[in-house]
Amino acid sequence: MFEEGARLKAIHGADNVFDFSLGNPDIEPPEAFKQQLREVAENPEPGLHAYMPNTGYARTRQAVAEFLTREQETEITENEVIMTCGAAGGLNIILKAVLDPGDEVITPAPYFVEYGFYADNHGGKLVAVPTRPDFTLDIGAIETAVTEKTRAVIINSPNNPTGQVYSEENLRDLGKVLSEKSRAHGRTIYLISDEPYRKIVYDDIRVPSVFSCYADSAVATSYSKDLSVPGERIGFAAVNPAALGKQKLLEAMALANRILGFVNAPALMQRVVTGLQGIHVAIPEYDRKRRLLCDGLAERGYSFTRPAGAFYLFPQAPVKDDVAFVQALQEELILAVPGSGFGAPGYFRLSYCVPDKTITAAMPGFEQAMEKFR
Amino acid sequence: MFEEGARLKAIHGADNVFDFSLGNPDIEPPEAFKQQLREVAENPEPGLHAYMPNTGYARTRQAVAEFLTREQETEITENEVIMTCGAAGGLNIILKAVLDPGDEVITPAPYFVEYGFYADNHGGKLVAVPTRPDFTLDIGAIETAVTEKTRAVIINSPNNPTGQVYSEENLRDLGKVLSEKSRAHGRTIYLISDEPYRKIVYDDIRVPSVFSCYADSAVATSYSKDLSVPGERIGFAAVNPAALGKQKLLEAMALANRILGFVNAPALMQRVVTGLQGIHVAIPEYDRKRRLLCDGLAERGYSFTRPAGAFYLFPQAPVKDDVAFVQALQEELILAVPGSGFGAPGYFRLSYCVPDKTITAAMPGFEQAMEKFR
C-alpha cells in the first residue's frame, strides 16, 4: 500500500490523493519524547549503545513493570517484562516460545493480517473465528473452534481494523472457556493480548486488564502509537505473574528474542521510553478525526460500528465485493484496504490517522463511490 | 554469559573479574556518530519516527549502495539493499527467503553458534564442516558436504571466533565449487557472507569482495562493531546484482523483514548512519589489545593462530576438554567461552574488546590455569 500510495501521489499530487490505507500516525511525538531523546543524545553515558541482556535494561523493565502493575491491576515485576522490537517482535517471541509444529492459534475475525504470518513463522496455523455483528468476541464460536491442537488465542483490543474494545465481561467469559478447555485437553491454552492501541480510546472508555481475566496470559505492545514512533520498533512483552510455568515461558521468550535475530530492543529507545511511561499523544486529536470521518460517512449512507478505540473505521461496503468497492474508491483517489485482507469480506478499513483536510476533502469521493452502487 | 559475568563481578568486584566472554565493544562510538545523533535529535523533521517502506529509507539505502559499490567492487543500487535490525536480522531474512523445510545450510566450523538457530528458525538444518588447521576454508570438505538438499553456505570473514580472514583465492575456489554443485543438482546454492567485522582488520589486510567471487551471493552486516553500537540493532542485507532471480529474492527478503516482526530497521538509526558510511572506530585501539593478548599468551605457552581481523582470539586449550579448561580459567576469575560452543572442541574463545588493564591483569590467571594442566 505504501508504494501504491506513493505512486498515485506522484501522478496526481499529494493533496489530491486521500490515503486512508496505512496505520502510520500523522500526529508528531509528544514534546516529552523529543526532550528525552535530546537529553540522551546530548549526554551520552558510556556504553549507551552497547549490548545489554537480551531482555533489555533492568531500569527500563522496572519502569514498565511499575506502570503495568497499575494498568493490568496485577503486581508485576521487571522479571515478567521483556523489551522487544515493537509489538510485532513481542508477538513473535511469545509464539516462538509456546508453539509446537502443527499447533493452532485462534483469533477472532476481522483480524490484523500479520497474525497468520506470525503463527506460520513458528510452525503454527491461524484459525479465524467470527465475531458478533458488533465485532465483540463470540465466546461460543471460540469455544467451538478449540481443538486438542489449540495452543493460543490472540486478541487485539482496541482492535485493528474495527476499533472495538472488548468489555471485562466479554474477557472474563473468554477466560472461563479457555480455563475449561485447557483442563479438558490437558494442555495450557495461552491468551495473547496484542495491545498497541490501549492508550487510544474515546468517550472515557476503560480497556479492561487481560491479566485479571485469565491467568495463562501474555501481553505484547509497543510505544508506536502512544508516542507516534512506529518506525523505531520499541515495545515490550509481559507475562502474567500467575501464569503456569511462567519462568520457563519467560526464559524461552528471552531466548527467542535472541535467536530470531532481534537480539534486544533498540538500546537508545529503551532509555528514551524509560521515563515516558503512560505518556501519549493527545487523544482529542484522534477523536476529532474520528468524529469528522464517522459523521461524514454516516451522512453519505455508510453503515459502521462506531469505533471505541484505535484510529480505524471498518464500514460495510455497499456491495458484497469489497475489493470492487475499494477499487471504486481508488478511482476517486481514496486509498482503503479491503476487509477480505482482515478475514472479513464485505467490509473495508479506513485509517483516520491522517490530516483533517484529507478526511473533509475525501467526502465528495466517498459520496461518488457510494452513488455508483446504489 | 552476560548474567554470569554480572554475578561474579557482584561477588568479587568488577576490577577483579576478567571478562573475555562477550563481543561487546568497549570502545565508545566515534565522535561523528555522536554528532549525527545530536543533530537528528535536535532538529527532528516531521515523520522522523514514522513507518517507512519495509526495506528502509531510500536515502539511506542509496548511501549504503554507493559505499558498497566500492567495497564489493560491484555496481550496487539501493534496490539491492535492505536495511535490517543488525546482521542477525539480515541473516534471518535471507534464510527465511531462501530456505524450504529440510534444506541444509553449510557453515565452516568453528562458527558463530547462532547460525544453528537461524537455520532452524526457518526449517533449515545447519551442517558444520571443518576448516583447515589455520581456520581457512577447506574447499574439499565443503564440496563433500554439499547434497541435493544444500541451499546455502554461510561464511563469516573476519571470523568470529577465530579472527581469520579468507583470501580472495580461497573465496574464488569456494565460488567455483558452489557453481559446479548448483549446476549438478539443478538448484541454486546461495553464498551468504556475514561481515560485521569487515572494517576491523590488522596489518593492512584487505577483506576480499564476496560478490566478485560468486554471483548467487548476499551479504549481511551491521554497524554494531564499526560504530560500537551493537545495542541499536542497525545493519543491512545486500544481494549481488548478478544473482539469479535477484528481484524475487529481494522481494521475499522485504516480506520476511515485515512478517518476522522486524517490520523495518530502527528509523532514527537509519538516519544517523546515512552519513557515516565507511566511518569506524580507531582500529589501532583493537590492534594494541590484540598484541597485548597475543604476546601475553604466547609467553605463557598458549598456542593460537594470530587473528587477522575482528576482536577474538581462539587459542587451543592445553587439554582436550575445553569446558574443563574454561572452568579452570573461571577459578582465576577469567571468563572465556569453550570452543565446543562454536563447533570446535579443544579450543576456547577470548574477546579482546576489553580495557587494556583487563588483559594485563588477567595474565597471572592465564599462567596459573596453564600450570594446572602442564
Your description of this structure?
Two copies of one chain form a homodimer. With 374 residues, chain A is α/β, with parallel strands linked by helices. Chain A folds into two domains: 2-27 and 282-372, Alpha-Beta Complex (Aspartate Aminotransferase, domain 1), CATH 3.90.1150.10; 34-274, Aspartate Aminotransferase, domain 2, CATH 3.40.640.10. Chain A has helices at residues 2-12, 31-42, 58-71, 86-98, 114-121, 139-145, 168-185, 210-213, 246-259, 267-274, 283-299, 322-331, 356-372; strands spanning 18-19, 81-84, 104-109, 125-130, 150-156, 190-194, 217-222, 235-239, 312-313, 334-335, 337-338, 348-351. In chain A, the strands form three sheets. In chain A, strands 2-8-7-6-5-3-4 form a seven-stranded mixed beta sheet, with helices on both faces. In chain A, strands 9-12-11 form a three-stranded antiparallel beta sheet, covered by helices on one side. In chain A, helix 2 crosses helix 10 (267-274) and helix 12 crosses helix 13. The model of chain A has no long low-confidence stretch (mean pLDDT 96). The interface between A and B is large, with 53 and 52 residues.
